[in-house]
Design a protein that fits this description.
Layout: H1 2-29, H2 34-39, H3 45-55, H4 61-73, H5 87-122, H6 127-141, H7 144-158, H8 170-199, H9 203-210, H10 215-243, H11 247-252, H12 258-267, H13 271-299, H14 301-306
């Protein structure tokens, strides 16, 4: 197992290099002058040019990128152009809010998606199955930002039951967590149903039923455990996506998380912050995927034997 983990960690290197190169290229070609933004619109041209020279912004693209990679390898991602704080200090100060929201969103998604998917599979073509699949299709197709705005309109503007945004008590979590959780639940429901349908048609399931095993035991003990592998994959991917900062959702609900930090940094052309945030998201997503792969071994002994 440790060899597998080590190989996966080594694979992070080319992934991060590719991510940083793409992001650095985009920020390099984006209109706007960081030196001008730091000094202000009314700053003298001489002062702006002097700051550009000090920051190395007049150097060729590859030289700037090489300097960035060298500094990143030493853990130096620089300071934010707007706040003058270390970029990772800013990211880590925002990450707890994103982690809390992502965790609650995934809990809602799993609590809805897996039971509904199991029932839909065991009652295929029933009224419940038809309604749940229509609801799942709507959930998959509905943009998060639109759903969030509709929830704000209903529960905050019309009914006045919940706050429309911000970070604070439990009430502030409800609308953004529902927005993230219900959209992820739709994906998990469809995957759970599909996986369960494939498993319950296997010969060993028919054999268990022929032996008179209780249907609840057949579904929960025999079918569900073998159907969980693709479901775990989807749950892990959704959790990684949410941990990376559900950008639009955090923006709609004014949530002080990593996603909103990234949006603000892009608007302000805060290059060090954008680069550090994207690297952080890529690393987080990669570690979540690694955790999912390791979890497979505890769910399916056949996979565990492949690591030996």
């Amino acid at each position: 197992m440790h060899k597998y983990v080590f190989r996966r960690l080594l694979m992070l290197i080319p992934v991060l290099l590719g991510v940083t190169f793409i992001v650095f290229s985009i920020m390099y070609m984006t209109p706007g002058d960081p030196a001008q933004m730091i000094l202000g619109e009314k700053a003298p041209a001489e002062a702006v040019e002097r700051l550009r020279e000090e920051m190395g912004l007049n150097d060729p693209f590859l030289m700037q990128y090489g300097r960035f990679v060298k500094n990143a390898m030493m853990g130096k991602f620089g300071r934010s152009y707007t706040t003058n704080r270390e970029v990772f200090a800013e990211i880590f100060s925002r990450f707890p809010a994103t982690l809390q929201l992502a965790s609650l969103g995934v809990l809602i998604a799993v609590a809805i998606g897996i039971p509904v998917g199991i029932i839909s599979a065991t009652k295929q073509y029933s009224l419940f199955d038809s309604i749940s699949m229509i609801a799942a299709l709507i959930g998959v197709s509905m943009p998060n930002f639109w759903q969030g705005l509709m929830l704000i309109l209903l529960f905050s503007v019309y009914l006045g039951w919940l706050p429309s945004g911000g970070y604070g008590g439990f009430a502030n979590f409800i609308l953004p967590a529902l927005t993230l959780g219900t959209s992820s639940a739709a994906i998990i429901t469809r995957m759970t149903r599909s996986s369960m349908l494939e498993v319950i048609r296997q010969d060993y399931i028919r054999t268990a039923r022929a032996k008179g095993v209780n249907e609840k035991t057949v579904v929960n003990k025999h079918a569900l455990k073998n159907a969980l592998i693709p479901v775990i994959t989807v749950v892990g991917l959704q959790f990684g996506y949410l941990l990376g900062g559900a950008v639009l959702t955090e923006t709609v609900f004014s949530w002080p998380g990593v996603g909103r930090l990234l949006v603000d940094a892009i608007k302000q052309k805060d290059t060090p912050m954008v680069q550090a945030t994207v690297v952080f998201i890529a690393v987080t997503f990669s570690f979540v995927n690694l955790g999912v792969d390791i979890l497979y071994a505890f769910v399916d002994p056949r996979i565990k034997s492949q690591y030996k």
